[in-house]
Amino acid sequence: MASSYVLFMLSLCLASTTKFALGGNFYTDFNILFGDNRANIQDGGSNMSLAMDKSSGSGIATKNEYLFGRFDMQMKLIPDNSAGTVTTFYLSSQGPNHDEIDLEFLGNLSGDPHILSTNYYANGTGGREIQFYLWFDPTQDFHTYSIDWNPQRIIILVDNIPIRVMHNRENIGVPFPTSQPMKVYATLWDGDFWATRGGKVKIDWSKAPFIAGFRNFNANACIAGPEGSSCMGFNGGRNKGLDAQIRKHLKEIHSRWVVYDYCRDFIRFAHGFPSECRKNKHT
Ligand SMILES: *[C@@H]1O[C@H](CO)[C@@H](O)[C@H](O)[C@H]1NC(C)=O
Ligand SMILES: *[C@@H]1O[C@H](CO)[C@@H](O)[C@H](O)[C@H]1NC(C)=O
Ligand SMILES: *[C@@H]1O[C@H](CO)[C@@H](O)[C@H](O)[C@H]1NC(C)=O
C-alpha cells in the first residue's frame, strides 16, 4: 500500500506543478506563533517541546498551507497535575468562514484521565465535538496522533487506529472543508475556564512550567500555492469507502471510549440534531 501511495503521489507531482510535502522538520517547516522560546525546537528539528508558565503558553504553525493530506504528530502530554491545560495539534485556515480540524488534549489532576476532544469547523461553524478517553496514559510515552484529510472524509487516528470519521455531507447541505488551505498548528494554552471537569478544576501554577513533547512531525500533503486548485486531484489514493477493518475499529472505540458525542446530546439539540447526525453517524 505504502509504495503504491508514493507512486500515486509522484505521478501527480510529475503531472502538474503541485508540490507535495513528504516528511517534516520543526525548524524548516514551522514558525513560532507565540510564547517565544517556550517553544523549544531541538535535535536538528526532529523534536520540539512547548512550555507554559503563568505569563504565557506557546505554539508553532507551519509556514506552508496544505490542501488535503495526512498529518502525523507524536506527542507526549504534560505529566502529573496538568488540570486546566490544553495541548493541541490541529489544522486551520484563516478568516471568518474558516475551516478547522482539531485535536485538543484536556489535562487533568494526577492520575485522572486526560480527554482527547475532536472537532471540526466548516465555513466558520464548529460545535461538532466528540471527546474520548484514551486506552493508555498519554503522559508516559510518545503516541502518534494523525489527521487524514481528503475531499470525501477526514479520519482521526491514534496510533494508527481510526477513532473518528467525518464524512463529507455537502450533498445534504452540510459544509465540509474542501477548498480552504490550512496550516498545521501545535499549541499549549490555559483553558482552565472549561477544560477540566467543565472548568471546575483550575491550573495549579505552583506546578509550572508545564511541558508537552512533540516529535516526528510528518506531512504527506499537498502544499497549496497560488495554484492551490491543483490540490483538488489530491486524495491520498484513498478515495474509497471505509473498509470493514476501519468500521470495526470505529465501532469498538465508540462503544468503549467516547465521553461526549454532540450527535447524542439531546439537551443541546432538543429542537433537532444537525443534519449530519441523522445520517449514519460515525461509520
Ligand atoms: C530532543 O532533542 C534533544 C537534543 O538532542 C534531546 O536532548 C532530547 O532528549 C530529545 N527529546 C526527545 C523526547 O527525543
Ligand atoms: C458560508 O457561510 C456564509 C455566511 O457566513 C454563507 O453566505 C455561504 O453561503 C456559506 N457557504 C457554504 C458553502 O455553505
Ligand atoms: C478528569 O477526571 C475526572 C474524574 O475522573 C473526569 O470526570 C474527567 O472526565 C477527567 N478529564 C477531564 C479533562 O476533565
Give a structural overview.
This protein has one domain: Jelly Rolls (Sandwich), CATH 2.60.120.200. Helices cover 12% and strands 37% of the residues. The strands form two sheets. Strands 1, 3, 4, 6, 11, 12, 13 and 15 form an eight-stranded antiparallel beta sheet that branches. It has an eight-stranded antiparallel beta sheet with strand order 2-5-14-7-8-9-10-16. A hairpin with a 2-residue loop joins strand 12 (153-158) and strand 13 (161-167). It has four helices and 16 strands. Mean pLDDT is 89; it is low at 5-17. The protein has 283 residues and is mainly β. The site of one 2-acetamido-2-deoxy-beta-D-glucopyranose has 4 residues, from loops. Residues 106, 108, 112-113, 115, 195-197 line the site of one 2-acetamido-2-deoxy-beta-D-glucopyranose. InterPro entries: Beta-glucanase-like, Beta-glucanase/XTH, Beta_glucanase, ConA-like_dom_sf, GH16_AS, XET_C, XTH. Its EC number is 2.4.1.207. One of its GO terms (cellular component) is apoplast. Its main location: secreted. The active site is at 100 (nucleophile), 104 (proton donor).
How does the SSE layout of this entry go?
Layout: H1 2-15, E1 19-21, H2 26-29, E2 30-34, E3 39-42, E4 47-52, E5 58-62, E6 66-76, E7 85-92, E8 100-106, E9 115-121, E10 130-132, E11 143-149, E12 153-158, E13 161-167, E14 183-190, E15 210-223, H3 244-256, E16 258-261, H4 275-278
Antiparallel strand pairs: 1-15, 2-5, 3-4, 4-15, 5-14, 6-11, 6-15, 7-8, 7-14, 8-9, 9-10, 10-16, 11-12, 12-13
